[in-house]
Amino acid sequence: MEELRVFYTGKNGKLTLLLKALQNLPKKEKIDAGKTLNVIKREIDQLFISKKQEIEDKVLNAKLIEEKIDISLPERPFHHGGIHPISKTLDELICILGNMGFEIKEGPHIEDEYNNFTALNIPESHPARQEHDTFYINKNSKLLRTHTSPVQIRVMSEKKLPIKIIAPGATYRCDDDSTHSPMFHQVEGLVVDKEVNMSDLKSIIIDLLKSFFQLENLPVRFRPSYFPFTEPSAEVDIGFSKKKGFIEIGKNDDWLEILGCGMVNIKVLENCGIDSKNYKGYAFGLGVERFAMLKYGINDLRMFYDNDLRWLKHYSFRPEGFPNIIRGLK
Ligand code: PHE
After folding, report:
1. What distance in Å separates the CA atoms of residue 290 and residue 178, rounded to the nearest whole number?
2. What integer best gives the mean pLDDT of the chain?
3. Alpha-carbon span 252 to 232, nearest angstrom
4. What is the pLDDT of residues 300-311, one digit of tens each?
5. Can you give 131-191 as a three-state secondary structure string?
6. Quick check: 279 and 158 in contact, CB under 8 A?
C-alpha cells in the first residue's frame, strides 16, 4: 500500500508530477486541470486513509483475540471460606425462634454488676456470684457478662410491653478445659405478657428442640431446678444414647442437660418496674456450643476456637444456603 501511495502521491509520484506540470499549461486549462487533479488527489488520499484504518483494525482485532485471557477459570485451585459451626448453629436457632415471633435484641459484652447480677436477684452475698467465675474489668463494677440474662434487664427496663425477644451472643467466664471455654455463646429468650405460664414455656422449648435437632420424637424432660432470676425454675434434658463413644440424640437411654429456664422471678420484674400483678414472664437460656457439639458431633469444645485449618475445613459449612426465616434450616 505504501509503495502504491509513493507511486501516485509521493515526491516523484505520477499525480505529483502532473500537478507540477500544471504550471506549464495556459491559464484557462490550468484552472480546469487543477480542479480535476485536486478531486482525484483527495479521492486517492481518502482511499489510502480508509484502507489504512481497515488494516489497522484487522491487526488490532486479531491481537485482541490472540491475547484474550479467560478470567472464568481459576489460576490455581482455591478454597472457599466456610461458615463456622457456631455461626451456623446461631443462624439456625435464630431462624427457628424468629419463626416463632421472637425479636432479636443484643446487649453489650461489658456489663455492670447491677444488670449481670443484682437486678437478676443475685445480691452480692449470693453464692451464685462466686459460681459464675466472673472476669472483672475494674473496680467500677464493670465486668464481662457471664450470661446473656442481663439483656433481660435491659429490655424489661424499657417497659415496652408485651416483650418477646431473644438475645444471642458471646458470654465470658474464667474457666478453661475440654468442656469450658472462657468465651462462649448463649441464646437468651424472654417473654413478658399478661397471660403467660409454664405450659407456654414448655411448648416453646419442646418445639425449639425438635426443630433444631430435626427429630419429631425427641424425648424432652423438664426437671425442677434453681436460678435466682426464675421461680419456679427448670432444667431441660433431652434423651440420648452412647454407642462406641458416639452420642446419638433422640434415644431414650440417658438424659443430657441442655438448657435452663423458668418463670421470671417477680422480684426481677419489679426491679425493672414491671407490675407483677398484671404481667408474668418466662425466660430461658441455652449454650450455643453445647447445641452445636450435639448436632454436629463435635467432641472437644476448645476446637471451636483453635482455628486449626484442618478442623475448620472439616466442620465448617458452605457459605451458600444458610438458614433463614423463609427457606428454613436447609
Ligand atoms: N442465665 C442462666 C445461665 O447462664 C440460664 C438461664 C437463663 C436460666 C434464663 C433460666 C432462665 O446459666
Report:
1. 12
2. 91
3. 26
4. 888 999 999 999
5. HCCCCECCCCCEEECCCCCHHHHHHHHHCCCCEEEEEEEEEECCCCECCECCEEEEEEEEE
6. no
Is the C-beta atom of 122 inside 6 A of ligand 1? Answer: no
**Interval between CA 223 and ligand 1 midpoint (Å):** 14
75: pLDDT confidence band, cut at 50, 70 and 90? low
The answer to whether the CB of 232 falls within 8 A of the CB of 263 is yes
User: 181: which 3 cell numbers?
Assistant: 471455654
pLDDT of amino acid 216: 94
pLDDT tens, residue by residue, 16-32: 999 899 889 898 889 99
Angle at 197 between CA 195 and CA 200, to 5 degrees: 100
Helix (H) / strand (E) containing 49? helix 27-66
Q: Which CATH class is domain 85-315?
A: alpha beta
C-beta of residue 104 within 8 angstroms of C-beta of residue 94 = yes
Atom of ligand 1 minimally distant from the CA of 120: 1
